[in-house]
Amino acid sequence: MNGPEKPARGRKVTSFDVAQRAGVSRAAVSRSFTPNASVSPETREKVVRAAKELGYRVNYLARGLINRRSDFVGVIAAGMDNPYRAMQIEQITKNLVRRNFKPILLPADHGESADHVMDQLLHYNVSGVLVTSDAPPTALCAEFAAAGVPIVLINKADTIPSVDRVVSDNNAAGKLAAATLVEAGARKLAVIVSSATSYTARCRQQAFVSACYALQRDVRVIPVEYNSYRHGLAAASCLDGVDGVFCVNDYMACGLIDGLHRQGGRDSIRIVGHDDIPQAAWSAYDLTTISQPCDVQAEQAVNLLVSRMDEPAQPERLEVTPVSLVRRGTA
Questions:
Q1: What would the mean pLDDT of 146-152 be, rounded to a whole number?
Q2: Confidence of residue 57 (pLDDT cuts 50, 70, 90)
Q3: Has residue 147 got a pLDDT over 90?
Q4: CA–CA separation, 249 vs 201, rounded Å?
Q5: How many other C-beta atoms are found inside a 10 Å radius of the C-beta of residue 67?
Q6: Average pLDDT, rounded, for the chain
Q7: DSSP secondary structure letters along 113-175
Q8: Could you read off the pLDDT of 188-236 as tens digits, one per residue?
Q9: Hey, CA dihedral for 234, 79, 189, 262, is it positive or negative?
Q10: Assign residue 216 a region: left if phi > 0, alpha if psi is -120 to 50, beta otherwise?
Q11: For residue 294, how many other CB atoms are within 10 A of its CB?
């Protein structure tokens, strides 16, 4: 085998070792591991082969400190128990990876302070941050923007200078849910919602209630602590006289359907959910729902983030994600 031997056991392999093994300069090694850098295919192949033989790995964190901008993007998510969040995170991270970023996922769940989570991201010299619904507080997001870290909020309410947002079309969703239930024959409607903990849920609730009044239908708001499966399950005992229900997410709607099954009352109540999680299509639920396309929303959010990186001084922007009805057996 040509070139120097592998470094002694215990010594860390460096780019210098790779350059020697490949017979190229250290600059060529750096370019070979930099996306879109100018380097010939032959050189890149020699460098990659030498790196594999030596067990070399690029230290992206160190590179970020040298360049004053890393390839890391923080992704902060709340409510990881909800299947929709898993879909959302998958699309966001795939989109980032396609654009040669490296996502760092940090959870910040209900009632938990997000300060320490956000602070960790500064230590990684992140290029930007994507924040999903109801995670860190507004003041903390504003601090990041003021520090020059591009940040995009997904399904959060607050308008913050230099902070871009992507918001699902919750107004259209509420109207669509009401119209679908009425079309299915429901006359006494209800919405199950924790509006205090969720901006998106509050918007959907308000749009649904307004649409019910416009359609001349009675409507009740059934409050729960969280928009979760467990609280949907419990809400099944609160539907006396109701024949049409809008659950502000599918996760809660699945709980409601299971609760109604226990009581033997599912077939008498029409149900519409929101999000179109995979479980909604299961035969046990067969849930009519409103799709909030994760892939579209992720593309919108990452586009805004990259644009903000390139032009930090532009005013804050808002993108709206369209929704559509997915009709199944519950309405």
A1: 85
A2: low
A3: no
A4: 8
A5: 12
A6: 86
A7: --HHHHHHHHHTT-SEEEE-TT-S-HHHHHHHHHTT--EEEES-----TT-EEEEE-HHHHHH
A8: 999 999 977 688 999 999 999 999 999 999 999 999 999 999 999 999 9
A9: negative
A10: left
A11: 23
Any idea which residue has 């149900």 for tokens? Answer: 271
Closest residue by Cα to residue 227 from 207, 256, 263, 206: 256
Q: What is the pLDDT of residue 65?
A: 43
pLDDT number for residue 1: 45
Class for the domain spanning 15-58: mainly alpha
- Which superfamily is assigned to 170-292 in CATH? Response regulator (3.40.50.2300)
Q: pTM of the full predicted structure?
A: 0.77
Q: What is the pLDDT of residues 12-31, one digit of tens each?
A: 778 888 888 889 988 888 78
Report whether 191 contacts 222 (CB < 8 A): yes
Q: Is 247 left (phi over 0), alpha (psi -120 to 50) or beta?
A: beta
Rounded CA separation 13/4 (Å): 12
Query: Could you tell me where in the chain the CATH 1.10.260.40 domains are found?
Result: 15-58
**Calpha distance 270→283 (Å, rounded):** 16
Instruction: Find the DSSP H helices in 184-249.
Output: 199-214, 229-235
Q: CATH number for 69-167+294-321: choose from 2.60.120.260, 3.60.20.10, 3.50.4.10, 3.40.50.2300.
A: 3.40.50.2300
83: tokens are: 């299947």
Where do we find the tokens 């990684």?
124
Confidence of residue 137 (pLDDT cuts 50, 70, 90): low
